[in-house]
Amino acid sequence: MQKIINTPSAPAPIGPYNQAVLAGGFLFVSGQIALDPVSGELLKGDAAEEAELVMKNLGAILEAAGLGFENVVKTTIFLKDMNDFAAVNEVYGRHFTGNFPARETVQAAALPKGVQVEISVIAAK
Questions:
Q1: pTM here?
Q2: How far apart are CA 79 and CA 24, in angstroms?
Q3: Contacts of 80 (CB under 8 A, 6+ apart)
C-alpha cells in the first residue's frame, strides 16, 4: 500500500512525480531544489542559500507526512560544483542532531533548472 504525500508548503512537482511516497514504513522524498513553494520561482543565490531553501522544503514534506529530520535514514546530495561541499554541508548539518543519516554527495554535470543543489531523503516512520 502506498500513500502519496503532497503539500502546498513545498514546491509543486515540475514533472510526472509526487513530492513523496510513503510505502512499507518508509517515506521516499523526491529530490528538492531551491524553488519557492508560494511563487514557484527559483531562488537566485549561492549554494548555501539554495541549500537552506531545499532543507526548508524537505522539512515541509516530512512534516506533511507526520515526520521530521530525526526520522531521516538516508540522504543524497547532488552538487553542481563539489567546491560548494563545505557550505552546503554546514547548512545540511544544522538540520540534524544526534544520529545522522547515511548519505552520499555527488557532483552532477547538470541539475534541474540549472540549480546548484538538489537533495532527496528517505525517512522511516
A1: 0.96
A2: 29
A3: 47, 107, 108, 110, 111, 115, 116, 117
* b/e per residue 107-122 (b: at least 16 CB within 10 A): ebeebeeebbbbbbbb
- What's the pLDDT tens digit per position in 59-74? 999 999 999 999 999 9
Provide the grid cell at 62: 516530512
Residues making up the chain, counted from first to last? 125
Q: Where are the domains of the chain?
A: 2-124
| Paired residues of 107 in beta bridges | 79
74 strand-pairing partners: 102, 122
CATH C-level class of 2-124:
alpha beta
